[in-house]
Amino acid sequence: KASQPKIKIAADVPSGANCMTGEVSSGTFNADYTAVFGYIKSGMTQYPLRQFCGEVQVFDIGLHEGSLSVLSKNMNVVDLSIVKSLKQHRKIDANKGDFGKMLSITGSDRMRGASIMSSLSALRSGVGLLTVASSWTCINNISQQIPEAITLPLATDSEGYILFEENRDILLKTIKSYSSILIGCGMGVTDSTRKLTEFIVKNADCPVIIDADGINCISSCINILSESKADIILTPHPKEMSRLCETGTEGIQKNRIETAMKFAEKYGVTLVLKGAGTVTADSQRCMVNINGNPGMSRGGSGDVLAGIIASLSAQGYSAFDACTYGVYIHGLAGDITAEKMGYEAMLPTDIIKNLSASFMSIK
């Protein structure tokens, strides 16, 4: 009937859009459904194009691998089947030693919450043992709120930021016994944070996850990433990525996938470029995550994600798999939270509370 709304279907990609970058023109076709031929185009996983595609279905038209661009054939969209294939199932006779030991060098007197949230999310993601190394004030809060965590008080300056030289020897002795190390959340942008991050990158034998202030500080000595003997994971949001690349956020947001892949290849790291359509990339491939929601766009969500990834890394997941799995679990927990609470009221601590439901949905 004439009064019924018409269903709009796009063939391969909505007209008026750049299918590689995700940019759109003023007249871009706003589809209810998009029938994609061969493979999903990279720009369709990014905004603003993603919101013009509606429901997407990919149809095999017999394209052989040689006909695809390097960017397209090395990119995939994370879905439930991929995540199920990554999940490591626990043996009935397992013990805590089977699930890794994680060291979290995070927090300061003024930013205790970052350490608390990353620690809670790490424990809720299955790590066997967690040690938190931080300021005395932060450690006191950790001890009261997270009795499962082991604590290591570190010397600080007069403002409560962790010092380097005064803690160097204890950290050098400590880091050798862990299966992953998280550094950066809530540490503050100080010279000591830079030296600490550089020290961990150079001396760790296990995967190192660098987040927040660790990223901001390491941007001034970026070439040390290539010197590491350990797997390095960086988890920047667009502004932090702009500091790493010494370029504007606008250019990064227009080319998120290509930017992430080139950076990961150049420095030999695994990179998680956060945001709508979070990109996980290493030197050979990338995964784009399309769950999650605007309610997760607030301070602390990144700390939660960093804890999840560090926890999975400690349990023996490869750097790329830990990031792919962790980003999906984080986004799914955010979606579960939003369904219960709405975008406006949900907090990062609520996301942590729903990690159990997120993990349990991956059978």
Structure characterization notes:
The chain has 363 residues and is of the alpha/beta class. The protein has 2 domains: 9-69, no CATH class; 85-360, UDP-N-acetylmuramoyl-L-alanine:D-glutamate ligase (3-Layer(aba) Sandwich), CATH 3.40.1190.20. Helices cover 37% and strands 14% of the residues. It is built from 14 helices and 13 strands. The protein has a 10-stranded mixed beta sheet with strand order 4-13-12-11-10-9-8-5-6-7, with helices on both faces. It has a 3-stranded parallel beta sheet with strand order 1-2-3, with no helix packed on it. Helix 3 runs parallel beside helix 4, helix 3 crosses helix 11 and helix 11 crosses helix 12. It is globular. It starts with 8 loop residues before the first strand and ends with a helix. Mean pLDDT is 93; it is low at 66-71.
Q: How many strand segments?
A: 13
Q: Give the CATH architecture of the largest domain.
A: 3-Layer(aba) Sandwich
CATH topology of the largest domain: UDP-N-acetylmuramoyl-L-alanine:D-glutamate ligase
Question: In what order do the strands lie side by side in the largest sheet?
Answer: 4-13-12-11-10-9-8-5-6-7
- Let me know the largest β-sheet: 10 strands, mixed
How would you name the CATH homologous superfamily of the largest domain? Ribokinase
Shape, principal axes of CA atoms? globular
Euclidean distance between termini CA atoms: 44 Å
Radius of gyration: 21 Å
What percent of residues are in strands? 5-15%
At the first level of CATH, the class of the largest domain is Alpha Beta
- Low-confidence segments, given as residue ranges, are 66-71
Structural class: alpha/beta
Helix proportion? 25-40%
Number of folding domains?
2
Q: How would you spell out the order of helices and strands?
A: EEEHEHEHEHEHEHEHEHHHEEEHHHH
Number of helices: 14
